[in-house]
Amino acid sequence: MTDRTTSHGTDDARADVSSTRTDDARTRDARTHHLVVLDMAGTTVADGGLVERAFERAAERLGVEPGSADHADKLQYVRDTMGESKISVFRHLFGTEDLAQRANAAFEQAYGELVDGGLIAPLPGARETIEQLRADGRTVVLTTGFARVTQDAILDALGWRDLADLTLCPADAGGRGRPYPDMVLAAFLRTGAVADVRETVVVGDTAYDMLSGRRAGAGIVAGVLTGAHGHAALTANGATHVLGSVAELPALLGPLTPAPAPAPAPAPESGR
Description:
By secondary structure, this protein is an alpha/beta fold. It is built from ten helices and nine strands. The protein has helices at residues 50-61, 69-80, 86-94, 97-116, 126-135, 148-158, 182-191, 207-216, 231-236, 249-253, and strands at 20-21, 35-39, 45-46, 121-122, 139-143, 166-168, 200-204, 220-224, 241-243. Helix 9 (231-236) links the parallel strand 8 and strand 9.
């Protein structure tokens, strides 16, 4: 495991201006950023603490006694690593691949049951933001640290199957989730929306989202204060901006500048 972070509250910076710019040189012209890679839970989707509830159900099925010190330690680690691929978290917590796979399967089942129970909703303005970004001509990709079956359950519950241009989970990018840059780079390669990865925008609510965006070379890496981590953790892990919510993203990016046409091939020299 790498870059373990400490969870922060989500309201420690709400009194600040809604957008905090920390790296102007990298983000000077947001109008050229045609590809937007958005996290789901905590960024565009309010899951109401379902990750912790699903983990508690999964841990109990694997014999972790509720209320024990072991249970408390494992739950804290889950909180600290919000945004990371869940199978990676379980590999750390349970030691062997067999136990990790069993824990992950139990977690995905429990989370799916909670989603099916109606305990999930879009964050305010999230759907409208995605629709606005696409209407402006941008390509939008939704990413998650969950398995595909859970991501699809969330999309179905929200009626979001056709909302974004593409959806990705760690398995779609070779199996590694955040904080690795793989999902951002997969979005870059699979959409072909931009010629330069620096014209990519990455948005998320966790330190791991920020790390993956910076490691991928995205030009804008924006944290939002609607999920697991607060202003300090987001900026410490590379956020170029911190927004109150994803609803502020269209105003940050502004109107889209059309991608420049390819330069014409040089005319052949006479006499050749």
